[in-house]
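Mods, move this if it's the wrong board.
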Amino acid sequence: MHFTPTDASWPNLEEVFFGKIQRKLIKNGNFKSRREMLQAIKDFVNVHNTNGMPYRWRKREVKGTQIRNNHTNFCD
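Not the wrong board. Structure tokens:
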């Protein structure tokens, strides 16, 4: 077992990348076989890598109202 903190950088980037594959390829995709889907993923990765750009990390600003709303939602 390996503990990875939730704010670790590489797991966050992997989640973003797999989210892109899911939204842009798999969600609306129609694949006749597993092999066809794997080839589509490989093609997507190749295009993504040729047009890749560095990811810009940013820290979200959390406002007091968001914290209060979350606390209220947990209490209900």
